[in-house]
Amino acid sequence: MDFSTLFVAALVVLAFILLFSVVKIVPQGREFTVERFGKYTRTLVPGISLLTPFVERVGRRMNMMEQVLDVPTQEVITKDNAMVKVDAIVFIQVMDAAAAAYRVENLPYAITQLCSTNLRTVVGSMDLDEVLFQRDNINSRLLTVIDAATEPWGVKVNRIEIKDLTPPVDITNAMARQMKAERERRAVITEAEGEKQAAIARAEGAKQSAILQAEGRKEAAFRDAEAREREAQAEAKATAMVSEAIARGDVNAINYFVAQKYVEAFAELARNPTAKTVIVPAEMSGLVGTIAGLGELVGLAREQQQGRTDVRTAPAAARAAPRPPRGGGSVPES
Questions:
Q1: What is the pTM (predicted TM-score) of this model?
Q2: Can you give the C-alpha Rg of the chain in angstroms?
């Protein structure tokens, strides 16, 4: 191989080296800083860019995407002297590549240390109960403080989240007992509410039942009163009819009235459940005579009805002739 061939090959290699040192391709989500003789001059955005050979070079390659940093677990003493273990994560995004590259050394380490110190400050100013139940308040306070502190570095802190809070073992046991007591209290209250509702329902049922029973008694009393009124009216009407018959001199009507009362009294005496022997308080002949008078009264009513239909054909003497009396009763002459 002669000298000319070696020279050409050297020129080609030098051209490739020069080309790769001048032409820079920046991927998406990244930004490169350009330094001229060690001094920052500009920032390369995603795409292809050209540098001045032997004068400019790429200084820092910055990640412009959102990044997640893990804050190490640390023990923090709360305001009421309780020791808790706190673990958090922080989400950051570089907004200014030059500021993030040249204003702070080791940006991730600086942000995690800043989060640790502020986390101790915020948690140390709160009671244990507030720390356990107000995580959102802690997150918002940390975000405000750390975002303001990292703004000169060209970094935007999007959010901070408390990942884990671990209280001491004795506090955990006390919280477990408290939770159990609270649940038992709620169970007792719920059971009492159920019994209360059941008692109210039973009382309402008894009330409705009493109202319905009272309505039934009221309706029954009204019906009984109406029945007694009608019975009294019928009794009065019957008495008036008997009185009219007596006024006309009809003795059989008196016998009918007396026989009816006699039979009713005898029936009540016979229905007595304690009486083993029924004593007839009158002669049977009198009872037979009374019943005969009743039959005579019925017969007279039938003959009077037939007489009205045959009044035009029957002789006057036959119509006026009185019937012989029966059963101790007498019919007066007309």
A1: 0.52
A2: 62
